[in-house]
Each structure stands twice: as structure tokens, then as C-alpha cells.
Input
Amino acid sequence: RYVDLIEEGFDLVFRVGDLDDSGLVARPLAPYELLLCAAPAYLNGQPPIRTPQDLAQHECLGFFHADLRSQWTFEGPDGRLNVPVKGRLNVDSGESLLALALAGMGLLLQPRELLAADLAAGRLVPVLPDFPVPTRPMHLLYAPDRRITPKVRSFIDFALAAFGTPSN
Output
């Protein structure tokens, strides 16, 4: 529970996903966006990936989280598609999965912020750009009765600048 985190002494918490009515102040941030990509070295010599169903023939690097370990969701022309995925590796670190993808070990589904530099440099390439992953709401949460110190105010301003707001 988010309230427990605040009660344990955390000043702020990031929450990805739908919010419960927790009584906390929720500052909306830009939606959490996941991208599917791979290193060119992985894609060379592999079966083509034209639709999400083609992922069944590929090594998918899994994030050890219940939603992303065994199925990935995409938006298609006919609505949402939940596609089962499999791979030899499930890891609970986005940075470790990124290193594996860069080494040509498989397909990667991770946040845009983690992938941006490697996509821009061509070390990773987008896969299935016509089938985007649905975004999720993201918020910065804090207690309404907690005094906002200058340090916390600076972090809130930094988070809003770094992650953006839903309108930008």
C-alpha cells in the first residue's frame, strides 16, 4: 500500500498504474510508456516479426514481474492483443535486461527512458512500431499533511521536468 510507504518515512512515491483512493496527493506525470526493441545483431538471421503473434518464435527477455513475465500486451488495428511470450531469462532489473538485449540475446520490452540513448545511437531498433504497448498512468504521491521541505519541493519539480505531465 502507498500509505504504508509514506508512514515508513518515505517523502514521495512513484506509482505506475491505476490509483486507489489513498488520501494521498497525486501529481500526474506523463504516461509510463514501454517500447519493444532489439539489437540488430539479434534480429539478423531470425524469423521476421510482422505481428505480435510472431513473438512466439523469438527469445523474449522477461521482466520478473507478474504482468510482463509471460505475456505482453499490444494495441492493434482491431483492439488489444495479449500475446504469450517465452524466453530463457527473467530478470528483475531493467538495466540487466538492457545489457542482455544489447548483447543480442533477445527482444526487450522496457520503458522509453531506459532505451532512448541506445535507440538514438542505433544499438537498438524498434520492433512492431505499428503495434504500440498501451501506456499506463504514472503519478508522484505524497501525504497531504506532510510539510513540503525545500528538498522535497526540488525533487517534485525535478520529477515533473524529467517525466513530464500528461499534457506534454
